[in-house]
Design goal:
There is one protein chain. The protein is an alpha+beta fold. The protein folds into two domains: about 150 residues, Ubiquitin-like (UB roll); about 45 residues, Alpha-Beta Plaits (2-Layer Sandwich). The protein is built from five helices and seven strands; from the N terminus they run ββαβββαααββα. The strands form two sheets. It has a five-stranded mixed sheet with strand order 2-1-5-3-4, sandwiched between helices. It has a two-stranded antiparallel sheet with strand order 6-7. Helix 2 runs antiparallel to helix 3. The protein is globular and about 50 Å long. The termini are far apart.
């Protein structure tokens, strides 16, 4: 067993576990997009970042791929972590502004406006579909192609794959395929209709190392004067 500390709480986890598994064991929620139970960790979306270590050597790592280590100190919702997640969500919104999954994550993290130029892509390269096809469906009909800005997902040479069984698993797990009607203007890019838009404690001191993580937030239930 490996002993570490998450948000000030001690926890023992089996060797080979990830920080994401350890945090969820304690009940600390960490948002994920490319991660999915039953699939190999990939760490593509970076949304699950957490902060490890202490200043001046503290750094951000992806919780879904980083293994637990003896004596490690982890913060899942520090101010630095939340700022990074907001930036990541804004970039994801710029790529797929009509994704219901990304919109809901953005609303939950108090993102109210799309600041970056919208691309209206149909893929965020999270790799869910590729891993589902290979690991669960045992087909491997699709994969990554190209590098950098030319990177994409599809079949070799864009020809129909003989391994594809038309099971629809790739579509089922794709966060970009779950579309929601929305405006094209950046200031109206996020629906947020079902979100609590005014959390009372998220920006207040002295919660630098540990911002709001409770779901639902008990403070949000306090009647406002």
């Amino acid at each position: 067993m490996v002993d570490l500390k998450i948000n000030g709480l001690h926890v023992s986890m089996p060797e080979g576990s990830t920080l994401l598994e350890a945090a969820r064991f304690l009940g600390f929620p960490i948002p994920t997009l490319c991660h999915m139970d039953g699939l190999e960790p990939y760490g593509a979306c970076r949304l699950c970042v957490v902060e490890i270590g202490r200043e001046p050597k503290a750094r951000l790592v992806t919780a879904c791929t980083y293994p637990v280590q003896e004596g490690l100190e982890v913060r899942t919702a520090s101010s630095r972590v939340l700022r990074a997640r907001v930036m990541i969500l804004e970039l994801l919104l710029a790529s797929c502004p009509q994704s219901r999954t990304i919109q809901d994550l953005a609303s939950a993290h108090n993102v109210r406006q799309q600041r970056f130029r919208q691309e209206h892509e149909d893929c965020i390269l999270c790799g869910r579909c590729v891993r589902m096809c290979k690991e669960q469906m045992m087909a491997g009909a699709i994969g990554f192609r190209g590098r950098g800005e030319n990177r994409s997902i599809g079949t070799p040479f864009d020809l129909r794959s003989e391994q594809c069984r038309l099971c629809g698993g790739c579509i089922y797990v794709c966060p970009a395929c779950q579309l929601r009607c929305t405006y094209n203007e950046p200031e109206k890019a996020i629906c947020g209709g079902c979100a609590n838009l005014s959390p009372p404690c998220i920006e207040k001191e002295p919660f630098d190392d540990m911002m709001c993580y409770m779901s639902p937030c008990v403070a949000c239930e306090i009647p406002k004067e």
